[in-house]
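User: Hey, quick favor. My workstation is busy. Could you predict this chain's structure for me?
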Amino acid sequence: MLSSIRNTIVYEPIKVLVIGSGGREHALCWKLAQSPLVRRLYCAPGNGGTDLVAKTENVAIAVDDSHALTQFAVTNKIDLVVVGPDNPLANGIVDIMEGCGLRVFGPNKAAARLEWSKAYAKEVMKAAGIPTARFYTCDSYDSGAEHVKQNSWARVVKVDGLALGKGVYVCDSEEETLEALAEVFASRRFGDAGNCVVLEERLAGEEISLLTFCDGKRLVPMPPCQDHKRRFAGDKGANTGGMGAFSPVDLYESCKNEISSQVLVPLERALNDGTLFYKGILYIGLMMVPGECTQAQKYNPYVLEFNARFGDPETQALLPRLRSDLLPVLWACTEGTLDETRLEWSTDVSCCVVAVTQSYPGASSKGDDIVLGALPPGTTLFHSGTALVNGKLQTAGGRILSVTGMAPSMEVAVHNAYLGLRAVSFANMDFRCDIARRAKAQCRSN
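Assistant: No problem, here it is.
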């Protein structure tokens, strides 16, 4: 067990349960398994990659079966539960587990509303004075359509509830925006999650994913990432869960003070004055919009969204850069003692590239054999949609896997990631060929 005594942390190896089955959960297990403080790891339900991680055992319990997961954690005397995906958080798994005396890393249902309700998140930003795009909330096609016709800035449609990363439409015209509204309200594609929609101004700039640890009072940022959500090179095609990411982002450094004063400080103020309660990972999606700041070529930060958990594939890009033990900081977030924890990050940079089937996201691959060769130095393989079936590694839907390259320079990190993908193959395998291309453009503009 971990406990704080006079600012000295005393450790005894513990048992950890990680909930989830994606690349994020594989990366979490991979990093936690390196900790001498972890005696045993369980991943529910896990994937073909987590099944191969040292100290780790997959548990065949679905992520949405909160009561079975709680029973398993209680029966097996789990010391710390780490919740990966958004749905269990929105369903209140933290509330259920904490009610049974378990220690859980992640926000309760009320706090996780920052992610599962886009409308609520907007109101929190507005109350805290955090810059965000203009918005309008509607609960019917007619009210939304009227607003779109009267306001040319309303070109982004966001489903209020969770939609598996598919509930955002970035539109180019009034006609396209109205079609998006019809798909949400008329076709009921998103079910109850689409009962409310946030219409938003479309901002132009560079996106940054800023993941922060939060212990209820403090926010400790990780290095920034940039995600690539569009399916095809050149940011074409449908939005996906993420086709790759790189870290760090040079643009972040040039506006670090503005991000801190306009976003992080107001959030910490809300945490400390009791208007916001939150523990776990607070993922802040930023849009850096060109404008006048304190230096030459500067950008103004706007918050696009909050997520209530580690991002995917950002986690696969970030954790290989973390030199420190991950376990103490997760524990500190549950204890409210982040000020006693220090994190050390590698100066090497990272690039993560996601491999999918060619038909993704419309359809994915299940049951096809995956062939793994020897990975080159400077690369790490993370599994997402994989499974071990009778000892054979097979595809299991969604994004299949990713390779993260590390190196002193982004150019070499990118090279390593794509070189690592050559060691992997499955039927109709595909990936974007331009991950981290914007990193070079940012270097030139700064």
